[in-house]
Amino acid sequence: MCKILGFRYTAKMPKPIQACPLPESLAKLGLGGPCVRFALLFHTGPRKVFPLTLEAVASLMDPARLRWISFSHFEADECGALNEWLAAAPDAQPLCSALAAMVSVDDFADRPAKPLADGETHSLGTLRVQWIDTPHLPHGMETGYLFETTTRTLLCGDLFAQPGNQPPAITESDALVWEPSEAMRQEFPYAPIHGAGALLDKLAATEPQVLACMHGASYRGDGAALLHRLGAALGKH
Ligand SMILES: [Fe+2]
Ligand SMILES: [Fe+2]
């Protein structure tokens, strides 16, 4: 059995962090049993709030049994607490893009990373994740995302970031994700890169049924449609 954990971050105390098994349907696959040695954590949270993220994970499972610590790109909220997690979980290893491993992670991290090439799959036991390179989307040349092939969950990191305090953990309303994330993007724009549309098409080709967002509510529904919509919006810049 394996388990994938993600965090969502909200802006205000006292509950800025919640740990969520993503998606909820993972629970139906029999998760939470004694065999969680392949558990994967996607994003570590910033180093300075590590006690809170540790507490949040501990509410779901024994943090010491995490096996993989993965993240989209090298930035404080994505991987600032990487070494704290490696200390807390003795069998854990960073799992990231080949470029992230070469440029930053194998220097920064206390244990060597397992690098993943674009399109490479990695078994978590009953689940399988695929790494998808998306350089500079939304920032960082080493950026990419993980797609879990059984539950069709795209761990889409900063994409569709939404502000606010307590959005639902997951919603089937595309408007509930799209409208606040687009409003936020106007004030805090994604890097307007050449080729963003092609990268979003690449993500959409996975036909995700869940977009597991790092900041705000996750979305269950036609993930490809929302990704194409973001590609069209970015293409206007
Ligand atoms: Fe980021
Ligand atoms: Fe982020």
- Would you tell me which CATH topology applies? Metallo-beta-lactamase, Chain A
Task: Estimate the mean pLDDT confidence.
Answer: 86
Kindly provide the name of the CATH class. Alpha Beta
Shape: globular
Number of domains: 1
| Structure class | alpha/beta
- Major sheet characteristics: 7 strands, mixed
Number of strands: 13
Q: With helices defined by DSSP (H or I, 4 residues minimum), what is the helix count? A: 7
CATH architecture: 4-Layer Sandwich
Strand arrangement, major sheet: 7-8-9-10-12-13-11
Q: Stretches where pLDDT falls below 50 for ≥5 residues? A: 9-16, 21-36
Which percent bin holds the helix content? 25-40%
Order of helices and strands: EEEHEHHEHEEEEEEHHEEH
Radius of gyration, in Å, reads: 16 Å
Under CATH, the homologous superfamily reads Ribonuclease Z/Hydroxyacylglutathione hydrolase-like
**Strand portion:** 15-25%
Report the span from N to C terminus: 44 Å
Which small compounds were modeled alongside the protein?
A: fe (ii) ion
3D structure, described in words:
The model is unreliable at 9-16 and 21-36 (pLDDT under 50). The chain starts with a strand and ends with a helix. The chain has a single domain (4-235), classed as Ribonuclease Z/Hydroxyacylglutathione hydrolase-like (Metallo-beta-lactamase, Chain A). The longest helix is centred in the C-terminal third of the chain and has 14 residues, at 174-187. The strands form two sheets. It has a seven-stranded mixed beta sheet, with helices on one face. A hairpin with a 4-residue loop joins strand 9 (144-148) and strand 10 (153-157). 43% of the residues are buried. The chain has helices spanning 50-58, 76-79, 82-88, 98-108, 174-187, 196-204, 223-235, and strands at residues 4-9, 17-21, 40-42, 68-70, 93-97, 114-116, 121-123, 128-133, 144-148, 153-157, 170-171, 210-213, 218-220. The protein has 237 residues and is an alpha/beta fold. The chain is 28% helix and 22% strand. Helix 6 runs antiparallel to helix 7. The radius of gyration is 16 Å and the shape is globular. It has seven helices and 13 strands. The structure holds fe (ii) ion (2 copies). The site of one fe (ii) ion has 5 residues, from helix 2.
